[in-house]
UniProtKB/TrEMBL annotation:
Protein name as it appears in the record: Probable transaldolase
Active-site feature positions: 87
Domain of life: Bacteria
Function: Transaldolase is important for the balance of metabolites in the pentose-phosphate pathway.
Organism of origin: Cyclobacterium jeungdonense
Encoding gene, per UniProt annotation: fsa
Length: 218
C-alpha cells in the first residue's frame, strides 16, 4: 500500500518524507489556497518545490472544466516535472481529457469520485489513479469505506489497471480499513500518518523498559 500526503504545506511534506514512508503527494485547489499560493507562476513554482522534496508522484489539479482547457492546463502542469500526475475532476469533459492524456502517456488522477459507476467510467477512460472521497461520503451518511470495497472488487473483476487512491481520509481507522479492503494508495493529512504510531501500551512499555534500565545501571 502506498502512502500519499494530502497537503500543499512544504513543512508537512518534508516531515512525512523524513519519516521514510512517503510515496507521493496529492493537492487540490483548496489546499493550494490554504497555503496562500495563487497565480500561474507561483503555483508552478510551488509544485516544483513539492516535487523536489519527494520521491514519487505529485498530483496537481486542473482548474479548467472544458476539454480544450483541461488538456492545455494539464500539459502545462505535466511539463513542470516528471513526478506530476494531472488531477482531473469526474465530469464529462474530464473523462474525455483523461482518455486523451492516457493516449499521450500523461498520468492522471480522477478526482471527486463518489460512486462505483464513476469509478468504472474513469477506469475505462484510462485514469492512472482514481480518488474516491471517503470522509465526504461519511459526512452525508453514506459509507465511504463500502465504496472503496466495491471499487476494488469491480477493478479486480476486470483487471483494470487504474489504482484506487482512497482520499478524504479523516482518521487512522479509515486508513487501516482501506488497507484491509485492498486500496492501492491512501492519501491523508500528516496527523493520520503519524497517528499510526500511537498506542498507550507502547508508551507504557517503553517507560517501564527505560526505568528498569536506569535502575539496573544506577
Ligand atoms: C484528494 O485528493 C483530496 O485532496 C482530499 O483527500 C479531500 O479531502 P477532504 O474531504 O478532507 O477535503
Amino acid at each position: 500500500m502506498k502512502f500519499f500526503i494530502d497537503t500543499a504545506n512544504l513543512t508537512e511534506i518534508k516531515e512525512a518524507y523524513d519519516l521514510g514512508v512517503l510515496d507521493g503527494v496529492t493537492t487540490n485547489p483548496s489546499l493550494m489556497a490554504k497555503e496562500g499560493i495563487s497565480g500561474d507562476e507561483k503555483v508552478k513554482n510551488h509544485y516544483k518545490a513539492i516535487c523536489d522534496i519527494v520521491d514519487g508522484n505529485v498530483s496537481a489539479e486542473v482548474i479548467a472544466t472544458d476539454f480544450d482547457e483541461i488538456v492545455r492546463e494539464g500539459k502545462e502542469l505535466a511539463k513542470i516535472d516528471d513526478k506530476i500526475v494531472v488531477k482531473v475532476p469526474m465530469i464529462k469533459e474530464g473523462i474525455k481529457a483523461i482518455k486523451y492524456f492516457s493516449s499521450e502517456g500523461i498520468r492522471t488522477n480522477c478526482t471527486l469520485v463518489f460512486s462505483a459507476g464513476q469509478a468504472i467510467l474513469a477506469a475505462k477512460a484510462g485514469a492512472s489513479y482514481l480518488s474516491p472521497f471517503i470522509g465526504r461520503l461519511d459526512d452525508i451518511s453514506f459509507d465511504g469505506l463500502d465504496l472503496i470495497g466495491q471499487i476494488v472488487h469491480i477493478y479486480q473483476n476486470y483487471g483494470f489497471e487504474t489504482e484506487v487512491l482512497a482520499a478524504s481520509i479523516r482518521h487512522t481507522m479509515h486508513l487501516v480499513k482501506c488497507a484491509e479492503l485492498g486500496a492501492d494508495v491512501v492519501t491523508c493529512p500528516l496527523k493520520v500518518i503519524t497517528g499510526l504510531l500511537n498506542h498507550p501500551l507502547t508508551d507504557k512499555g517503553l517507560a517501564q523498559f527505560l526505568a528498569d534500565h536506569a535502575k539496573a545501571n544506577s
